[in-house]
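[step 3/7] inverse_fold.run input=structure_tokens len=171
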């Protein structure tokens, strides 16, 4: 008997970071203070994140994609409820960055088309999308779309955005 698929996330948060490769390679600010290999409660996730001010303040992509959700909401570049809109945001970001990619392989339009099709597929079933590219000079760029409420890899990480009450309703 096959288990039913997990429910689709409520929304996706989008993140983009561009900076120096040396900064990206410094893993100390890219991981929360404790290695967590299992799901823990939302309260425990918040405690772990709070125990590392450097991790919380860093805008460098975390080592584990769902750990973006531990970071402050101000780091979110966009949020979408529909996977198609999240995919379009990802496509726009990558297209904007493409002229700066270091290699012709990454600049290849056919390769980008394949990457975009894979992103559409992954978001269509509720997954995350991650892209990273070396840029001309000493730069690195990361574009990530992270499922939230709930993330399939770390379903107990709380959403960084406090849900807003419906408009026009009673508080």
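[step 3/7] decode complete -> sequence:
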């Amino acid at each position: 008997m096959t288990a039913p698929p997990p429910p689709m996330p409520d929304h996706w948060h989008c993140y983009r970071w561009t900076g120096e490769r040396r900064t990206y390679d410094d893993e100390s600010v890219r991981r929360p203070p404790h290695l967590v290999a299992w799901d823990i409660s939302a309260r425990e996730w918040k405690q772990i994140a709070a125990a590392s001010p450097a991790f919380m303040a860093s805008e460098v992509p975390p080592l584990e994609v769902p750990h973006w959700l531990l970071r402050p909401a101000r780091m979110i570049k966009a949020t979408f409820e529909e996977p198609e809109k999240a995919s379009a945001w990802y496509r726009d970001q990558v297209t904007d960055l493409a002229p700066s990619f270091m290699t012709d392989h990454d600049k290849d339009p056919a390769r980008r088309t394949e990457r975009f099709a894979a992103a559409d597929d992954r978001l269509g079933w509720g997954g995350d999308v991650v892209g990273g590219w070396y840029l001309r000079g000493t730069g690195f760029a990361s574009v990530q779309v992270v499922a939230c409420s709930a993330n399939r890899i770390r379903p107990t990480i709380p959403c960084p955005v406090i849900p807003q009450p419906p408009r026009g309703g009673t508080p």
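[step 4/7] annotate
The two ends are 44 Å apart (CA to CA).
Residues 109-124 form the longest helix (16 residues).
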